[in-house]
Amino acid sequence: MIGLSHYLVISAILFSIGLVGVLRRRNLLMLFFATEVMLNAVNIAFAAISHYYNDLTGQMFAFFIIAVAASEVAVGLGILIVLYKKHGSLDLDDLASMRG
Amino acid sequence: MYEIVAFYLFSALTIGLFLVTVMSKNILYSMTSLASGMVLISGFFFILGADFLGVVQLIVYVGAIMALYSFAMMFFDATRDIKEKNTNNTLVFLLGGLTALVLVLMFAAPIYSENIQALYPMHEGVGNAQDVGIVLFTKYLVPFEVAALMLLVAMIAGIILAGKKMDESLTEDMSADDEIVRETEIEKDDK
Questions:
Q1: Using an 8 Å Cβ cutoff, are B15 and A13 in contact?
Q2: Chain A environment of B159 (Cβ under 8 Å)
Q3: ipTM of the predicted structure?
Q4: Where are the alpha helices (DSSP H) in chain A?
Q5: Domains of chain B
Q6: Which residue, A11, A90, B34, B106, could crosslink A44 as a Cys pair with Cβ 3.0–4.6 Å?
Q7: pTM
């Protein structure tokens, strides 16, 4: 039988995949994809806890996370477009203008 | 039985698709695998009985957010492979693997939670959407309205940020455009 731990473990694995992406990627669009992966992993954990404790609070938090993710993408993509217009690339190494 | 099969199938597919998302060099592959992984995650929500959350996941993530990404990709040169300088790959995988290990050990440990009780328990015989609606519009009304305001602000910010200088092309050479204009002008002069 599938228990709560199964869902939490799959959520942890997906979160770590997203974390590896955030640490490894140099392209800003790919960084956004990796953050989406992490947000989705957390949503799975919330939904699973909501199911196994018979409580709706987890689902509510998952809704708000989805709303936050949507607005994050809207603003973030606008910023990405402005950056691309200014620098002509989305590579973080190219964008690093403050060097000590 | 079906739940077990569905769970393991969805888990394997989601992990594989998200690995493709994180590792792929091509933005198009990455985005497609991200979208299909999100569809499978909504499958998790349906298994867990969170029907409304699953539908919202499908509509918002797979519909709206991925459409937004694909629209934004029209501004960038998406077909080219991304060249990235990965300086410290071993360190990254070590950190990610350690985090995964710690989280898995934490979550796989037995949970002693006798004193946790449901704050807003689900009702028997009521659909999930109805239940969610009742709780969302009574207990979580203020956060809901704040989220609506936040989405409005985000929409305005997105329009303003992306809308500057919309008449200029990003990917094409500006000089090429000028040449075309010049050629047409010359043709007009010839006539």
A1: yes
A2: 78
A3: 0.90
A4: 4-24, 28-52, 57-87, 92-95
A5: 1-81 (1.20.120.1200), 140-191 (no CATH)
A6: A11
A7: 0.83
